[in-house]
Specification:
The complex is a heterodimer.
Chain A (H helix, E strand, L loop, with lengths): L1 H30 L2 E6 L16 H5 L7 E3 L5 E3 L2 E6 L5 E6 L13 H12 L7 H6 L2 E8 L2 E6 L6 H5 L9 H7 L14 E7 L3 E6 L8 H4 L9 E6 L3 H9 L5 E3 L6 H6 L4 E6 L5 E5 L9 H10 L2 H7 L22 H5 L4 H10 L3 E3 L4 E4 L2 E2 L1 E7 L2 H16 L3 E7 L1 H9 L5 E5 L5 H9 L16 H10 L5 H17 L3 E5 L2 E6 L3 E2 L2 E3 L4 E3 L4 E2 L2
Parallel strand pairs in A: 1-10, 1-11, 17-18, 17-19
Antiparallel strand pairs in A: 2-3, 4-5, 5-7, 6-7, 8-9, 9-10, 11-21, 12-21, 13-19, 13-20, 14-15, 15-16, 22-25, 23-24
Helix pairs in contact in A: 10-13, 16-17, 17-18
Chain B lengths: L8 H20 L1 H18 L1 H4 L31 H37 L1 H15 L3 H12 L3 H27 L3 H8 L4 H37 L11 H8 L8 H28 L6
Helix pairs in contact in B: 2-4, 2-11, 4-5, 4-7, 4-9, 4-11, 5-7, 6-7, 7-9, 8-9, 9-10, 9-11, 10-11
The chains are: A alpha+beta, B mainly alpha.
Chain lengths: 535, 294
Amino acid sequence: MSKRLLVRFVSLFVVTTMLLASLAGAVVAQDEVVLTFGISRRVDTLDNTATAFSSVEVIVGHVFDTLVKQNPLGSFHPALATSWSVNDDATEYVFELRDDVTFHDGTPFNAEAVKYTFDRIVHPDTKSQMGFSFIGPYQESEVIDDHTIAVRFRAPNAAFLDGLSHPQLGPVSPTAVEALGADWGFSGIVGAGPFMFESYTPDTEVVLVKNPDYNWGDEAVFGITGPTALDRLIFKILTDPGTRLAALESGEVDMIDNLPGLDVARLQEDPSFVVSIYDQAGHGYSLMFNHQNSPTDELAVRKAIAMSVDLEIMQDIVYDGLGYKPCSALTASMVGWTDIFCHVNPYDPEAAGALLDEAGWVMNDETGIRERDGVPLVVRHFGADRPLGNATAQFLREDLGNVGIDFELNISDFSAYITNVVAGLHNTQQWWDTQTDPDGVFRTLFHSSNAGGGSNRNNYISETMDNMIDAAVGISDQAARIAAYADIQQILADEVVMMYLNDPVVTYAAIPAVQNVTILGGGFVPDFYSATMDG
Amino acid sequence: MTNINAPPAELDDVQTSRWLRFGRRVLRSRNVMAGAIILIIVTLLVALAPHISPYSPTEQFRRNRLQPADAEFILGTDNLGRDIWTRILYGGQVSLQVGIISVAIGATLGALLGLLAGYLGGHADTIIMRFIDVMMAFPGILLSLVIVAVLGRNLHNVMVAVGLSSVPVYTRVVRGSTLSVKQLDFIVAAQALGGSSWRIMTRHILPNVAAPLTVVATNGVASAIITGAALSFLGLGQQPPDPEWGLMLNEGREFIRVAAWVTTFPGMAIMITVLAINLLGDGLRDILDPRLKL
């Protein structure tokens, strides 16, 4: 009898609690302003200092404020640093820091934290990728006083302000990094940005909440200062284009990036969505040649591949007519861009065949594949299983097959792909990234410090190139710097270090309620600090 | 009455008439006939793909990208301008192969284990069946996924994976039948005459468990085709650019709103083939199941 009574009490209690909880939830939900963004690219880690993906910037830029901000036009504004000075050869930068800033964990932001962040990026254990490129030839940081710091470089680094404006160099809370240990970047991140980390479910979503104490927004860039209007900012990771679009159309998310190309026109006509399109800055879609493996260690083979691909029609077939035919490692909107590559390596399959003949790769008419000393001309391509990557790979295979190159596809799941290309098993692999300064592009792709498993999966190791990249970044005269980058592009074209497939456009679609999103990072980084949800 | 002087020819007559009866039942079963006819057509189309199909399965007609069905491309083209009809024909070779070979692997291993477990009994039975129970604990598709993930992405591994993951089904069917058959007098007689276990299992028991095994294996081909396609759909089977039905579904998924034919036709190919095999399997079960005999 008493047992039954107990059961009744317990169930009554449970039901009441659930009712109350749901009521409370409903009340909170009504007042909360939530923006949900469907992001097309994956997250490797939320550790801003370590990530290998430029796309992670879109998420972590809201958690980590930077020392300087770069507005959409490319000029630099004070953020966590109130002012700065640079010496003549750009080897030393001195920053005055804000003294009223605290990290999300309550610890103060100061020169020590900045030094800690930069030292962490160059520490080998961090295995930093993007941050490591952005920080350039870093030597040391010196804490002059609590809110003054000097940053020194082994060589001139005129691109440092650009690097600093990326959250990959955004100061982290040293206390939090030490406390979280290996969980940093997974179960927590602590910066000084307008949003605080709440949760991260790998391959699913990242939830950020408003930082109510935020009082150092940059009005010149965002038009507001003080806390954000959003209570919650959710990033849903939706790598599949169809799923992402369906999520927008069903109202599950408020905004998405990277629209399926064939749906752009339809959405533009639909009044329930607002479509915006930006030319992507920095780099685009490209194909990396592994210079350490045969046969892509041969110039003739690389050049023949570059000249055999019909890039003109590829824009329509693979990229759905979005973006432009590329002619450089830089996209056409970048300072310093030249189209020299297209002149040196024009589309000409016959000339490509002649090059291969000359190099001793002779067509075997039975197999349709060229051979030299009985070895068939096989180019091993490694890719992760994604619709765009698969279409690209099959397009390339067809064109290269026509000149007698067996472009062998090894398409696998993402983790197997990464393991294989980091180990350097590939001849070719696809690349995509975006930057805002030419130095970042060249350093990421061609500097030997990023070879051997890093972002230079060309595994291109050239002292000449390293010196040219390091020299160019130190030139503060704009015209001279542009000339230096033209020289670099000439070598990249002559040696066909890699080839370029598409200068992309960045596309967004949102419901009309989403307003005042600031698009930074050369079109690629939607910043939701200033965003509002009307209605 | 038994005529001990009767010539052996009479035994042949009995067997012949048994086959005749089976044949007559087959012809009378609408399911079996419908399934068999569709399956024969599918198999012929697929086997003769190089002669029937107008193009090469990987040839890209880039100017005719995502074109709906017309006289030139009777089922339309995909995102790279490849002829879908041609790709379905060639893709069928892969799908049917996966179905048949993986069932061959699964049924052979499963039947062997089932015979051993059922006939030997005791510890052998306990060990084999507990092992099978462990495998049964995993859903077939999950087990296949794990096996392919371990072995690596290619078609042979898909066949092995789908085959291995279906072993438990065959083992249980064969063991069950073996347990009942081994009680029968002619087995006891064979044991009394000194027949070895192996001989009794293969010569006397196996033919008597063949009927249920055939039924399960026939339906197994259908589910193996689906599992194989599912693995390719998930990017664990056929390596592009060669066609496979599941892979075609995957590649067309992105264009389903603007070009539904890219996914519809491979989907229909899977549906028709699987339906035909299931009809055949169900029909055979009706004919071969002794409990349903009139």
